[in-house]
Amino acid sequence: MFKKIIAAVAMFFVLSSGATVWAAPKALEKEITKDLQQFNGRVGVYAKNLKTGKTYKFNQDEVFPAASTSKLVVALATYKYLYPKATPAKQAEYEEAIEPMIRVSDNETFKELLDEADEVKQDAFLRVEKDLRLSKTRIHDEKAFERYSYHSVTTPYEMGKVFETIYNEKYISKKQARQLKDHLANTIFQDEIPRYMQTPVLHKVGELDEVLCDVGVIQDGRDPILISFYTSTDDHEYSSDFIASVSAKLYNALRRQ
User: Fold this and answer.
1) Which one of 4, 81, 241, 251 has the largest count of C-beta atoms within 10 Å of its C-beta?
2) What's the CA angle centered on 204, arms 203 and 210, to 5 degrees?
3) For residue range 116-171, what is the model confidence (pLDDT) as tens digits?
């Protein structure tokens, strides 16, 4: 606990001392790369300033189990391919199921939507993957299980692309996208990307076996910074602390002065 307090204080000074950080942004990127190279396990990151287009990449195309970030694709598929032809009552059920699936990562409603897709539109997830040109992402997929021993897999880059699609409000209706963004802004999980942020964060965390991941957008009113962060290690406390601290550095490296 004491170590976490010290780390939080140190990170506060990092986040609040913009002049120091911006004096050498390239040096900060090198520091981030060094941190990632020394991670005790597998790690992949894709980060992007959605205003300027500046990116940072590290193992961004490596395949990881999607864990609960797969729920982002399930939400998009529900709105895009199940919702339009559903009755008003069924549409309300979909909306009611998506909210807890995103806000508290509820697995019961997640399973209900998976079953619904199997019954109503079996290729719904595949369609989203094709629409967004996700070549390595597979959601609720038997072939993925045969190859990776997980039914849902993705890469930091591709799940970052999914989150950017939600953020831009162009793939599904603006009303649906804004509902989804509201859920993402009000999740109960605050330990990874949001931990050291003093500004709103929309995000979806995932945790499964040795996997811990978080994908989201930090909003400071000027530069929305997308971070897609995947780790694989048997120490989740270590990986949680790592995601939180490196995300803070990524935010400072990518935002404008």
Assistant:
1) 251
2) 130
3) 999 999 999 999 999 999 999 999 999 999 999 999 999 999 999 999 999 999 99
Give the span between the Cα atoms of 71 and 108, in whole angstroms: 12
CB 251 within 8 A of CB 203: no
Question: Which residues, 6+ apart, have CB-to-CB distance to 6 below 8 Å?
Answer: none
Exposure letters 234-243 (e unless 16+ CB within 10 A, then b): eeeeebbbbb
pTM: 0.90
Cα 179 from Cα 160, distance rounded (Å): 19
The count of other CB atoms within 10 Å of the CB of residue 245 is 18
* Residue given tokens 């050291």 in the structure block: 196
Least Cα distance to 80 among 179, 171, 175, 181 occurs for 171
Q: Which two tokens stand for residue 58?
A: 């590290």
- One-letter amino acid of 252: N
Per-residue pLDDT tens over the stretch 76-126? 999 999 999 999 999 999 999 999 999 999 999 999 999 999 999 999 999
Helices (H), the chain: 2-16, 18-22, 25-37, 70-77, 88-103, 107-120, 124-131, 142-148, 156-168, 174-185, 236-254
Unique residue bearing structure tokens 């008003």? 88
74 Cβ neighbours under 8 A, 6+ residues apart: 101, 110, 113, 114, 117, 125, 139, 140
- On the 0-12 / 13-18 / 19+ scale of CB atoms within 10 A, 37 is exposed
